[in-house]
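Hi team,

Filling in the usual template for the complex we talked about on Friday. All components are listed, including any nucleic acid strands or ligand strings, so the model treats them as one assembly.

SUBMITTER: L.P.
PURPOSE: interface mapping
COMPONENTS: two
RESIDUES: 899
SEQUENCES:
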Amino acid sequence: MNFIDRKIVENVSRRGFLQGALASGVFILSARFVPEPLWAAEGEAAAAFDPSLWMAIASDGTVTIVAHRSEMGCGSRTALPLVVADELDADWARVKIGQAIGDSKYGDQDTDGSHSVRSYFELMRQVGATGRAMLLSAAATQWNVSAKDCSTEPHFVVHKASGRKLGYGELAAAAAKLPVPKKEELRFKSRGEWRYIGKESNALFDLPDIVTGNAVFGMDAAMPGMVYASIEHPPVLGQKIKSYDDKAALKVAGVRKTLTIDTVEPPHMFKPLGGVAVIADNTWAAFSGRKQLKIEWGSSPHSVYNSGEFRKTLEATSRQPGKIVRDVGDVDAAFAKADKIIEAEYYTPHLAHGAMEPNVAVAEYRDGKVLAWAPTQNPQAVQETVAGVLGLKKEDVTCHVTLLGGGFGRKSKPDQVAEAAILSKQLGKPVKVVWTREDDIKCDYFHSVAAMYMKAAIGPNGKPTAWLQRTTYPPIGSTFDASAKYADDEMGLGWNNLPFDIPNHRAENGPADYHVRIGWLRSVANIYHAFAIHSFADELAKAANRDSVEYLLDLLGPPRIVQLDLKGDEAEEAKAYPLDTARLRRVIEVAGEKSEWGKRAMGKGRGMGIAAHRSFLTYVATVVEVEVDNRGQVHIPNVWTAVDAGTFVSPDNIRNQFQGAAVFGTSLALVSEITATNGVIDQSNFDSYQLTRMSRAPRQIDVHIVESDAPPAGVGEPGVPPFAPALFNAVFAATGKRVRELPLSKTKLV
Amino acid sequence: MIRLKVNGKEKTFDGDPEMPLLWYLRDVAGLTGTKFGCGMSLCGACTVHQNGEAIRSCSTSMKEVAGSEITTIEGIAPMHPVQKAWMEIRVPQCGYCQTGQIMQAIALLKENRHPSDQDIDTVMSGNLCRCGTYPRIRAAIHQAAKELA
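RESULT (copied from the run log):
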């Protein structure tokens, strides 16, 4: 198979990187460079932090920068190396990116939560500035001048007084021998000196490979001698194989054998679901053989799961008092003396991720070690999961990371890599596990179904004197602890931090059981929390007969830092990233201005809606304009989003992410829904699980970046949460119909 | 024995004639630029050209392409004006669906040198992009159309 030798995304292992580097006489930031611990929470990582992991300069001037975060389309594989290159003053055209394998030495590699740039911006600057200082010092020594009299231009050190200059490649060997300066001795560029950070010229590093078909995704990874596997998973979570007949499957040309994988026991973690694997010479034979399997499945406690019935349970729970997660003033007293009360309930269904690349992995087990290639958001979770199921040490599992054909949170969970490793151990050869689209949709870690109950006491001018909000859904925690019923970890995702200026406020969370695996999906619980909060805010505005934007600004109140009752990591985070209503007001004002809110004549069936939500520490306001035709079809001619993400690296990438978030938001607002009958997921492919296509996507999406010197915040996720409520508020403006459940396709508008 | 031309090269195939072209291209011929997304012609990630026309290779069997000339993304000389426009507009995010989008766009522009927004929507709505790059895809097709004119 000639394609085994194809170029694979260039991956670097520590040993390989060092050997390759040293062999060609290059400068690498050596282990003598010991910066301050960056990631105190990751104890091991902090202790072992070693910048020689990050960067090397070859004698030909090629600078290799390591990307330790996964690339699933959000741009971090480009953004973080750009930061290094900027402080190094490297010529970006001479930079190569090496993709890190999974290794705790890199610190946290779980590419989720929109925090790659936020968490690593300063460190990447330090890596680059250290390299630049050493190159300057090497040149100064060679010229016998003071380093202070030298400067850099991209890829060169320059001595202006004498007109001399030396290339980084020429200086690499000498620089490598110098002591590594301490952080306090470094000179960082001022904002005005940044060459790449914040610039329009930045494009994705992998762009040329993507448009020519040379980019290597997990689906494209291969190992010599590998076989292909397709796995029939239990239709209901937890079902075990009672018996199976593979005679017909084995008759399919190209099918070699079948193997079983034990059904997962809770907690499900990232372990394989179990099932019957068909092993074949190619993907098609594996798929075809699998269709011929006859399997009798045992019972499962989750066979009772019917999403229609479950909705009633969630809604009933949300009508009852729950666990209090934030309590300000005295909500009950305020309700007792209120003249006017408004209540509303909201519902959002399960969602599947639907990344364009289905789950896939290649793994080889040999002599007690595993080598895997996978499109994973979290290569260290691959190490832990594979080691766990095979009884190995984490260090015995090497995980190379390909490009990801979309991730959206699904690819944080490497169950398919464990499948490949288990099968490889049984077969004695490398195995490529390829999920079908049906597997991908039916066997997801689903975005949770949720029910929200909202209640407000209305005071003078229609502004609430009290605001109660309750939310209930099976928590992500149930994936890790089968007894978990409360969503403690999701409360920070738009529920315990309502930014409104309301004297009496309480947020609660009700208990719920899980019946499918629950996981993170792009912006996670912010989706349903923002839907309820910002739909309800608009309902109150309309009830008060006030303009939605003006009312929203009134709800936010005067510019201030919102006092939150946070603990642990969230409290730490709030120190560097306080919840600042001035920034939220500003994005609302910009979105209002750009959309000419209130100034454009809206004809029949047209309307605009707004929502503003801070998530992943980024402030976003979105205005959606809809046109509802006489068949009740919703068209979206325009979207305006204003975003304050603090300091950013690539403005065009922000625009692309927020445009994409509007389309992602359109899918979940208009058409996407996962349901279950007797524990079996009803949807299977893109016919039954609908995603937005070009014809129904917003036609024009304008993204306005509000400049800020604040530290970097998230970019990949924060565009999603405000979209659905803004759209539904627009539908109300256009039709007078208040729809309180996703997706809109379930409600007839005419 | 099935004979076909892939990117100008003569090929023979003596495997299962029901095998979709997609899996021949990926697993047998080693041309992995063509992607698997759904297996049911619902997403367009597997789009290639059969005698110059866009087809979904996931639902086209080898026996259906016998004697045909197949062009995959690897057979498009870089940088085709469509690829160039994709670079300039910076269309991709994750990039997985983009080879299928590009093959569909090239076929569209061959048929219709000056497509309207509506024309583009009609043809390109068979190609899903979960990252949501549709507005940029539309812009890139208009830009490529200008260059091809």
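MY TAKE: The radius of gyration of chain B is 15 Å. Chain B touches chain A through 61 residues (CB under 8 Å).

Thanks, L.
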